[in-house]
Each structure stands twice: as structure tokens, then as C-alpha cells.
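re: ur question from yesterday

yeah so i grabbed the chain u mentioned. its 131 aa long if i counted rite. heres the sequnce exactly as i have it in my notes:
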Amino acid sequence: MSTQQRISACVVSVDPSTADVLRHQTLVVLEANHYYFEEILEFGPEAQHALSVIYRDAFAVLDTIGWRRPDDPPATVDVPFTAGFIEQLHRRRYDLGHTNIDRVQQETWDQTVVDRDREAAITLNRLLAKV
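ran it thru and got these C-alpha cells back, copy pasting raw so excuse formatting
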């Protein structure tokens, strides 16, 4: 039995504040794809594998940067980014840009949430420029 080899990843050094944004956005990627699992038995093997790759890539990032910020974080952490995970981050960046516009157009909106998402979008822009 042969084991399928992982797609190679590029490695990017990130600082603790970038790791915080990356951690949160990676969890959002996982949450955004969770509903596919409700129908996973109806998928063919290729689709099941494609879904598993999204989760494996996200878990690899979380395992590398940590599931929470350590009390004494290192100056940088080398994070592996696969092509598929980079695509997921591009989608998150796109979504962040649109949710900010949607929130500002609402009658009741929270400025702190909009500011947090804008900062996340800026951080993702910087990060995606490196990969």
C-alpha cells in the first residue's frame, strides 16, 4: 500500500501578531467548511480527499503556530503554506473586505469589529504578498 505524498509547502516566518490573525482566520476557514461533513458519505473519494486536505492544511498551520498564543511567544514562527491553504486565505481576505462594507451599511454596527476585520485584512494582505 502506498501513501500519498503531501504537496510541498512554502514556509513563511510570521511574528506573534500575524500568528494571532492567522490563528483566528484559520479557525474561520475550518468553520466555513464544516457543513460539507454533513454530506461526506455522499461524496466520492476524490471529494472526500479534497475536503480532508483543507482540514489537514489548516491543522498543520494551527499546530505550528499553536492553538493559543503562548505566554512567551518566539520572535517568529516558520509556518507551512500549501497552495490550497493560500487559496483559502485569499477567500478569507475577500470575505473580510465585503463584510466590512456590509457592516458599515447596517444601522447598528460595531466599530471595534469593523476595525478588527480591517486589521485582519491588512495582515492577510501582507502575509499573502510573501507567499
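noticed a couple things. The two ends are 34 Å apart (CA to CA). also The helical segments are 16-32, 45-65, 83-105, 111-130.
anyway ttyl
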